[in-house]
Amino acid sequence: MKQTLKITLLVFFLATTCLADQSSPDGAVTDFYGWYQQAGFKYRDKFVEAEPYFTEEFYGLLKTGFKRSQGPDFWVDFDPFVNAQMEAQKISVGKPSSQGADLAMVPMTPTYGRGGASNYEGPVIKLYVKRAGEDWKIANIVYGGDHPFELKAFLEKGLGR
How do the domains of the chain map onto residue ranges? Predict the structure, then answer.
């Protein structure tokens, strides 16, 4: 009986920790970046797990872009989720702002570095999320800083779509 109770509690705990809170724009972004940080450098290998966080169209563009390898053709040679060549030490998700009935923008600030005094904040990255039924899904990522650009447009152009 004790063993059955332990197993039941363990299954319940694991199930509740795996549930994503995509019921709000910032909840969807926070949950995605939780997955992303947990996946670490293997995020591209595990990208199929992230499909629920993205609109179908944006996920397809990312998946196709990730499949391209380094070479003369287009390929994604940076980490598009933090706009860098290195991983982020910290992700700070801000408050969403409405962009319409079913669209919101959620700002995210990555902190780069190797820890301690070498850490520095990167420019704000804007994640645009769309309502899909009861959930919110990432539909585009827009980078600020010295070289601003939209990831979706970059992928569409590079993939010839």
Answer: 2-158
